[in-house]
Specification:
Layout: H1 7-10, H2 14-35, H3 37-46, H4 67-72, E1 86-91, E2 101-105, H5 106-122, E3 130-133, H6 142-153, E4 156-159, H7 165-174, E5 179-182, H8 184-196, E6 208-212, H9 218-228, E7 231-238, E8 243-249, E9 256-258, E10 263-268, E11 282-288, E12 299-305, E13 307-308, E14 320-321, E15 326-327, E16 332-334, E17 337-339, H10 341-350, E18 357-364, E19 367-375, H11 385-403, E20 408-412, E21 427-429, H12 431-434
Parallel strand pairs: 3-4, 3-5, 5-6, 6-7, 18-21, 19-20
Antiparallel strand pairs: 1-2, 7-8, 8-9, 9-14, 10-11, 11-12, 12-15, 13-14, 16-17, 18-19
Helix pairs in contact: 2-3, 5-6, 7-8, 8-9, 9-10, 10-11
Bound molecules: 5'-O-[hydroxy(phenylacetyl)phosphoryl]adenosine.
Length: 435
């Protein structure tokens, strides 16, 4: 039987949800206009006043906010509450430019943890569970968010943070962890280490995993599910909107339900900003309608996905978003062809390789090059040189069939590619260094 954390909200009729959103958006726009000079200026430039926003139908009148606005307004420019009412910051893991800093009142933290509690409950979590949280703790939102959600549900919470993988497995076994929360790439690494330590899935009690913070494919899901003997659920979020728990997967595993009582999603054409109808792929935009300290209106996430209101077998009526296909800024354009790393991952796993790979793009004599290093299977490792060349050719052909461009494939020794304990770095684009 499907369990809900907040059945009333999660199964609310569309009409009632719209009414709730309509009330909240009107109040939120007033709150932002009165308290955030930066956004007030954007609204004034566009000639929009708070009175013009009477319901969610008027959302499209509001200006967008982008990451570059967040940089311009860094650190306090988008704060909507006095510092005396703010109790925490979290920050992105971004390595380029200024980090994004998000602020929380105590109420913001409560609502955020509540969203994570919905995700844990949807994955089957109850107060009988032992929940091992191996997302990073600290500035990154993964650890604190899932930790708070796990407390709310009443799970026994293991605040492990990431790293020290053998110790993770020892705790997992000793304490009988039943739910694992971490990035999918780290889950794959934990699975690999479990087997390297001589254990099987019979030696652990895990039943579910809640994995997100980076793109991962259906093939990767199946590979993790097999290696850890669990059902793997996706969870999505971003620092700017509070962190994990903006949306979460249910038993149907066909997309993530968005917590629409807190976040209104839109899909736009990333080039023109035009709002697209349900079912079309575009950039996801969120408006937070309950956040007090850092209430972003029409924030462009750069994540590309599709929304769907198709009836879900879990009984939830919350709109669903597809797995993000990648970020508009993660998409590689190689010899004029759009390439998402996830397409390459799909082929690798389908062809029986491990999800440990590195994509390197460069430009030589004005031509883009695509090199993909993949670990050999242990059975291939003893093969003769010409056999390895044949494996490389076969894999290159499968990738060419998917992408339409020829890669150079390098099969490397098992375990020679650095494992990820957080968000995996799978692409090195050296062209940027020349530009
Ligand atoms: O990654 C928050 C999070 C923590 C989500 C733990 C889920 C679990 P940021 O570091 O700000 O926040 O990165 C946000 O990560 O815009 C997406 O591009 C990507 N992302 C997050 N979840 C998923 C997912 C956290 N399930 C950025 N699938 C987002 C694909 C994801 N991409």
């Amino acid at each position: 039987m499907e369990r809900y954390w907040n059945q009333e909200i999660e199964t609310m009729s569309r009409e009632d949800m719209k009414k709730l959103q309509d009330e909240r958006i009107v109040e939120q726009v007033k709150h932002v206009y009165e308290n955030v000079e930066y956004y007030r200026n954007l609204m004034d430039e566009k000639g929009v006043k708070p009175e013009d926003i009477k319901s969610t139908d008027d959302l499209h009148k509001l200006p967008f906010l982008t990451k570059s606005d967040l940089r311009d307004a860094y650190p306090y420019g988008l704060l909507a509450k006095p510092l005396s009412e703010c109790v925490r910051i979290q920050s992105t893991s971004g390595t380029t430019g200024k980090r994004v800093v998000a602020f929380y009142t105590q109420n913001d933290i409560d609502l955020w943890e509540d969203c994570c509690a919905r995700a844990i409950t949807a994955a089957g979590g109850t107060n009988e569970d032992v929940c091992q949280v191996c997302y990073g703790y600290g500035l990154f939102t993964g650890g604190p968010g899932l930790n708070g959600g796990s407390h709310k549900v009443g799970c026994l919470t293991l605040p492990m943070s990431s790293g020290n993988t053998e110790r993770q497995i020892t705790f997992m076994r000793d304490l009988g962890a039943t739910i694992l929360c971490c990035t999918p790439s780290y889950a794959a690494y934990i699975g690999e280490t479990l087997h390297d330590m001589g254990y099987t899935t019979d030696d652990i009690k895990l039943k579910a995993g809640i994995f997100g913070a980076e793109p991962w494919t259906e093939e990767m899901r199946r590979s993790i599910e097999k290696s850890l003997g669990i059902k793997a659920y996706d969870i999505y979020g971003l620092t700017e909107t509070s962190g994990p728990g903006v949306s979460f997967e249910c038993s149907e595993q066909t997309g993530m339900h968005i917590n629409e009582d807190h976040f209104i999603p839109e899909i736009i054409n990333p080039e023109t900003g035009e709002v697209l109808p349900e079912g079309e792929v575009g950039e996801l935009v969120f408006t937070s309608i309950t956040k007090e300290a850092f209430p972003l209106l029409r924030y462009r996430t750069r994540d590309l996905c599709v929304l769907s209101r198709k009836k879900c077998s879990c009984g939830r009526t919350l709109i669903k978003m597809s797995k993000p296909m990648g970020r508009s800024d993660d998409m590689l354009i190689i010899r004029g062809v759009n390439v998402f790393p996830s397409q390459i991952e799909t082929v690798l796993i389908e062809q029986g390789y491990s999800p440990n790979y590195l994509i390197e793009v460069d430009r030589v004599n004005n031509t883009d090059t695509l090199d993909i290093s993949v670990e050999m299977n242990p059975t291939q490792a003893d093969s003769a040189g010409e056999d390895i060349q044949m494996y490389e050719k076969t894999l290159a052909l499968a990738i060419k069939t998917m992408l339409g461009i020829n890669p150079k494939v390098h099969l490397v020794s098992p375990k020679s590619i650095t494992r990820s304990e957080g968000k995996a770095v799978r692409v090195i684009d050296r062209r940027k260094l020349h530009d």
